[in-house]
Amino acid sequence: MTSTASTVEQYINEAPEDRREALHKLRNIILENLPEGFQEGIGYGMIGYSVPHSIYPPGYHCTPELPLPFMSFASQKNSINFYHMGIYAKPELYDWFVTEYPKHSKQKLDIGKSCLRIKKPENIPFELIGELVKKITVQDWIATYEAAFKK
User: What CA dihedral angle connects 27, 12, 145 and 61, to 10 degrees?
Assistant: First the structure.
């Protein structure tokens, strides 16, 4: 499900009613822990956090006119999905997250390379996501991105 919302507030208000509170809480946890320099906005039909062109002028290598994406979340058909490129690009961060997850949620971990899928809003590990968000600064992400993805 890709949203056509143009603002974060519109995106959350258009989500199913039973998910809005969790989406607000997830956004607030992210904003409370987000290192300085990342910008919030709508990207790829989701709420996203990216490195703006003012900090990283080359932008995203696949689409240079877009800022460098880092993290996002979305209300999908069957779940709320949280995407974090750091756990994709840094195996040690992925391993940390997988190890910590059972301490924060009784739900079985449903994770892809960068995507955590949560079927029930009440099972979102907010505290763990807050800890994860703090772990990579804008400068760390640019260095990791350039080392791992940029050709």
Answer: -160
